[in-house]
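Subgroup meeting minutes
Present: P.N., E.W., G.H.
Scribe: E.W.

1. P.N. recapped why we're keeping a running log of single-chain structure predictions: easier to compare across weeks, and new members can see raw inputs and outputs side by side.
2. G.H. added today's entry (159 aa).
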Amino acid sequence: MKRRGSAGVPRRRLTDAKFWLEVLKGFQGYPVLIIATVVIAGAAFWFAWWLRANIARGAIDALTKTIDTMNQRLEFAQDQLTAIKSKLAETEKTVAAQANEIAQLRDQGFAGVEGLAQSNNAIQSSLTDLATSTTILGRTFSDIREWANAFNKPRPSAG
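Output recorded in log:
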């Protein structure tokens, strides 16, 4: 039994020159078939070109949105860094003020121990806030780094 192609024509016949000459003779008697074939081929080409353009446009739009998202994250991280720097400056001022207060409390003796404890608590609170802000900033930069690494991974080549 002969193997048949997708159109029900034996495969061996598709490579036969005589078969194609017979098919082309059919076009001689009906010139409208040539025009219809060209129009259909042109429409198929146009549709493929249009589809490729839409797929490419979708990919470009998705990448643009991803870049915009990363820029927003980077701006957010920069804002957090600015906030951390201001908290650090506040903490440095608090530590300097506490150093003066501790010096005054040492002069007062045991009566100033409660004030020293409060000062110590204030310093610890400031440092805890600073550590929390730094952790959040680190997570944001890690997210950006992970995205950049995932985006820059070489894609396996088809072949």
